Amino acid sequence: MIDVIPTGAALGAEIRCGDVRRLDDGATATIRRAWLDHLVVVFRGQDLDKAELIAFGRRFGNLHFGTRRPAGMMPRDENFPEINVISNVIENGLKLGNLGYSEALWHTDRSHQEKPLSGSLLYALEVPPEGGDTSWANMYLAFETLPAAMKDRIAGLTIHHDAGRDSAGAPRADFKGTGAHHPIVRTHPETGASALYLGRRGNTSIDGLPEKDSDALLDALWAHATRPELVWTHQWRVGDIVVWDNRCTIHHRTAFDPNDRRIMHRLQVDGTRPFMDPNALSRPAHARIGSAAPAT
Ligand code: OGA
Ligand code: MN
What we know:
8-stranded mixed beta sheet, 5 helices, binds manganese (II) ion, binds ligand 1, alpha+beta
């Protein structure tokens, strides 16, 4: 009774399962499998209150508690601290949430942490008529489609993820310390396949390389990782839930008219420390779907 309908692009699938409040454990296993296979899964037409959204999010793992809101932002709802509001709306002089209305650059969530988040979920409550679309790119395929010499070159390297700013460029209120160092090629702890793990272009550098060489290598990897054939874009409707895997995807959001309203409720799933298993490097990605798959 659960239909998984791949987008036909390099990643992403819609899951048709009716009301997500009614899923049993068997259905949860099917959905988790589809999430690992397709990297991003979409559920449409849902109508959940905060408690129901949290109950659904827990099916993907332990939920991360959102950070406290900075001054000028509506305090979080302490009854549901897992929910982080993503919004451009300002009411009574207070921002409802994070990330505003301008473009959010390509990134994966909280790679500056020692244990970055494994998954993220957005639930659309209000969406603008135009813009505010979110795209994801498949980092298994990004790794697999690198030239062999480039794979060899980056296999032992690590990136310093120094995220003083969020994906909208705003200083991170809760950021302390110097960020984390993670392997550029990450072994997915559940699928065992290798993915490029770039974090975000700003505030990153490759450990041990002169700045010029680090910038050149990162620019080349980013150009490769964001090629259109690796990307799928979602146009939101109210009631959509999208859950993505931060371990093997990057995402970005287009800008929209500041006079339009966009309100999302976000949940994030705790993750584990990234690692690279050298034996995994030649193992094909579990999720090899869509036209971007390399010929074998
Ligand atoms: C996020 C994020 C993009 C969006 O919440 O981590 O990047 O489309 N959001 O709101
Ligand atoms: Mn994000």
